[in-house]
Amino acid sequence: MDAQAEKTAAGPGPWLVASAAESDLTGPTGSDLYLELSLNGNPQGLVHFGLRDRELWASASTLRQLGFVLPPGASDPVRLNSLPGVKVAYDAARQSVAINAPADVLRLPTTVVNTSTVASPRASASPGLLLNYDLYGTQGRGNSTSLNALAEVRAFSGSSVFTSTMMSRAYRSDNEDWKHDSVRLDTTWSQSFPDDMLTLRVGDTTTASLPWSRSTRIGGIQLSRNFSLQPYRTTTPLPAFLGSATLPSQVELYINGLRQYTGQVPAGPFQLNTVPSINGAGNAQVVLTDAFGRATTLDFSLYDTQRLLQEGLSDWSVDLGMVRRNYGLRSNDYGSDPAATGTWRYGVSNSFTLEAHGETTKGLVKGGVGGAWLIGQSGVFTGAVAHSSYRGEQGSLLNLGYSWRDNQFNFAVEGTRTRGEYRDVASLYGSAPARGSGRASIGYTTKDLGSFGLSYLYLRYPAQEATRMASVYWFRAIGKSASMNVSLNQNLDNRRERSLFVGFTWALDGNITASAGVQRDNGKTVYTADAQSSMPGDGGIGWRAGLRQGGGQNGGQAEIDYLGRYGRAMAGISVLGDNRFAYAGATGSIAFMGGQPFAARRIDDAFAVVSTDGIAGVPVRLENRDIGTTDDKGMLLVAPLRSYQNNQLSIDPMQLPADVRIERVKTVATPSDRAGTLVRFGITPVSAAALLLVDEAGKPLPLGSRVRANAQGGEPALVGFDGAVYLESLQARNTLDVQTPNGVCRTSFDYRKEGAAIPQIGPLRCTREAKAP
């Protein structure tokens, strides 16, 4: 068979085009070969070689197409064994050849491996309503009483959410008449666009800000980037770990000694992109293990920070509206002049993020630029400059900062200074920006002596004296169940303002924690002792009690808490000096979805309503954790869920009646932000029966006989052992046509279901059809 015929017979494959030089592969006495090639363990298909004196030759063009880097002036064709470091294993019986070549001889494509491969799920929300409530009341001396309520009303459908919050208070003292007041807090409608990571808000909102600017409450419109709409997307720069594998290998990534990823890479260079689970400096190791079990370790240093954006990624917000005044005191108090603000961040590179912020209102224009720089492994430097003009008066701002941290050491310093009459929108309705502010902190963690830290704070407002505070702390774990901490705070402008605290904490059996401490503050000494048992996360009772002695506030406090399926309740009593009162409170929610109301714990994010199509008592699981059972209408509210993320819900099919068909026992719920979604498992009742079919002599019909009920189409049912057959979709009166090896027979029966069990019917005599004369 000639070469072209061999190619045609072999079918499609990674064929290499023959060059003119291939006519010289065999020489005067050699032979042409088309061999199945394996290059560093990677199959390459059939490749043309020449065999001379028991050695393989290949054309230069073929080798270059395979990725070989040939030395200058190399002969054409090329004797494979003449290439440096190349090993050739020719198997004449199998008509194959395995070539192993060092990485520096090959130029292979780079394999890029991304460790985060979760695709953004499609979110959904069913129409519904939700009421979150928080109730709190006190009873003190002299019949002094207060009742407080905070409520949130939320309506949602799809990716749209309307929410309104309100606070009410009623109170009286010394047997006076009741007084009450209510105030609306926020009313907002929002629409999200997950594919574009955008959210539009209309109503009460807070303007976006940067670390060197201030936000403002407004009533108006906001359009902003919202990364939480795609929570599986990584917005910070991904460290890239580069290497090269001579053979197909297993790659493992360790960050600070903890394995973060394991997978496979083919031969050739590779790039491993990953999300490090650190904040600050760290060390990474990439371990390559090839097919022969040989391991190679590559060491890297890395620095990760949440302040940066990935290269080419932008984060922004545009806000327009009236500034909100007297928030929490008045319901509808807005400024008369519209204000506009804009905030923008852009990843110029993976080590530099540019920032910009601007504001304007009547008589005011303010703008500034800044950025965050990752200086290799040496930490993050931040800075910004801004300028304002308000009614002809100019002002400026300068902000500088630097931070570095690793597992043991951390250091941060930042300062902001304003000059002239620097103003922003917030200052026109409240306090002016500080003239100067600064902070510095340093901390160190040791293995045996615990953690140490020192911090400094500086703050000065216009027309006020500067405040300078310094603090130092020490913390150390004692064994596995105890710890001790010491902290000292000192006002550097007033030596008498000093506080010292020493505390001990013990973790006891039964989820009980006890603590004791002593505090020296402004010449007074206070002793405290506390004990508490936290509420279990899945519900139960918790409590806490404390005593206080000294400083004119002798007394104590006791409280008991209960967390149930429908909310949280608490009650307690406080006696400190002359201040004595009892208190009680409750938090929870009421949702209306799927045609009925549900009582639940407070729901701040998303939830789901599971429907088992009217079947009560079915256990439901969230992420393989029991969450409850469906009510008498076959419904259950499941909360909290993570919005725009995969939340796995499942049911126990063993608790379902036998006469139902179920499409799935597991599903993924992905609700949108602050909304609920209706989840069904495709449960439908079936009219089914188990039949026993016999022939005219009373013997079971033959195994494999084919049964059709009521002339229905589709695949027929098959008769099993002892003439048994299972049928669904039955009617009150049914006729069966049965194809047996001896011909066709027919029988009929009435179907009537009693109870939840599948009825057993038969034996039914199947009579042969009379032959036509």
UniProtKB/TrEMBL annotation:
Domain of life of the source: Bacteria
GO biological process, one term: pilus assembly
Domain PapC-like C-terminal: 693-751
InterPro entries listed in its UniProt record: Fimb_usher, FimD_plug_dom, PapC-like_C, PapC-like_C_sf
A Pfam family per the record: Usher
Gene Ontology terms for molecular function: fimbrial usher porin activity
Signal peptide positions on this chain: none
GO CC aspect terms: cell outer membrane
PANTHER family attached to this UniProt entry: OUTER MEMBRANE USHER PROTEIN, SLR0019 PROTEIN
Protein name: Outer membrane usher protein
Native source species: Variovorax guangxiensis
Phylogenetic placement of the source organism: Bacteria, Pseudomonadati, Pseudomonadota, Betaproteobacteria, Burkholderiales
